[in-house]
Amino acid sequence: MKLEDRMSRSIKQRAGLVVLRSEFSGMGSDSQVGRVLARFVANGMLVRVSKGAFAKTRINQYTGKPTPAGTLEMIVAELFRKLNISIAPSTLVAEYNSGKSTQVPMGTVVNTGRRRISRKVMVGNNTVVYENSFRAAAG
Fold first, then answer.
1. What predicted TM-score, i.e. pTM, was given to this entire model?
2. Which GO terms describe its molecular function (predicted)?
3. I need a surface site. Which of 22, 30, 62, 121 has the fewest CB within 10 A?
4. Last residue in a domain, options 35, 69, 103
């Protein structure tokens, strides 16, 4: 069975949305896995969201083009769970959820606690913004 077929089957059998390049390291060499993932992105089976991270796609009913199978928030939550990075809702989202604010937060902002993260996570034109709680922990 070809590497492309094995990787395709593996992706289809996964319950989650996010696929990491490192999850295929046992199937072939880095260059082989990279070529197959690039082919999947070109075919519309996957979309690249970050370095070494891809999301499954589905066909958009209005445009007929492949789009990510979940929202940016869902993809970010699963990606950071797979990378063992704990994140929390941003300050604005926490205030809205607790009822302190009636203003609906726009954009995707996640709180990374005391950890600094520079990984760029992007789906389409939407990019994740990071917020740290350095001041909250110190004060």
1. 0.84
2. hydrolase activity
3. 62
4. 69
